[in-house]
Amino acid sequence: MMSLLFKETYNSWLSKQISEEKNPRRQELLRKGLSHGTVTFLRSIWLPTIGNLDNLFPEYEVRDLNNRYRYLDLAYMPGGEKGCIEIQDYSSHARDVETGRFKDLCMKQALLTLDDWCFLPIAYLSIRDDPGVCKNLVLSFVGKFLSINMSSSSKLTWSEAETLRFARRLMRPFTATELSAHLLLSENRTRVILRSLITKSLLVVASGNQRYRTFRLNV
Q1: Is the dihedral of CA 202, 206, 210, 212 positive or negative?
Q2: Radius of gyration for the chain, computed over Cα atoms and rounded to the nearest angstrom
Q3: How many CB atoms lie within 10 A of CB 214?
Q4: Predicted confidence band at 154 (pLDDT cuts at 50, 70, 90)?
Q5: 186, 180 in Cβ contact below 8 A?
């Protein structure tokens, strides 16, 4: 059973994907709905870990180096980067898969990797049996793209860059006091840094209205 929060988030996200899609092939795939494995991954792993479905594009169409159309279970594309999450169902990918289909799956990953896609294959059985491991994989996967974005930014001060590295290592909400201790700066100075990174859309407030209490990466 989908929780009400997930159902509302998921339906809004998928409806937006369908309404904005101009490609009739992908639009038809989206209208048919996503696979059980993909929905389970989003509900049980991605949304609880990341907190949103931003920058995710299901059934994303690409052409590989052999000029064939490929459809990715989930493309993750923050800032135009290229990440791909494939949910490997046991019955179709391991036990009953035909030799030709297996070879094609391997070729798909090889060709797209050569086209600079970062792949994260997740077994459906791992979602069911090892959700904690899957959540850590997702954090590491997202962290790779945060690292790319951080290294490409030349307008950050040392304290801002170190704050982002600190947040990336934690991958959880943190307080100004924690950051102050890490940077060896006063809490007032630390809050100036946090406000600057929020303005730059690199951090967001995780809790607190009148007075911000915790912060996290904007992922």
Answers
A1: negative
A2: 20
A3: 14
A4: low
A5: yes
Alpha carbon distance 111, 77 (integer Å):
18
Residues 6+ apart with CB under 8 A from 142: 50, 76, 171, 219
> Phi, psi at residue 148, to the nearest 5°?
-65, -45
pLDDT at 201 over 60: yes
pTM for this prediction: 0.70
DSSP one-letter code for 80: G
Query: Would you say the C-alpha torsion 30, 36, 39, 41 has a positive or negative sign?
Result: negative
Cβ density class 67-101: b for 16+ within 10 Å, e for less: eeebebbbbbebeebbbbbbbbbeeebeeebeeee
Q: What is the 3-state secondary structure (H, E, C) of 103-120?
A: HHHHHHHHHHHHCCCEEE
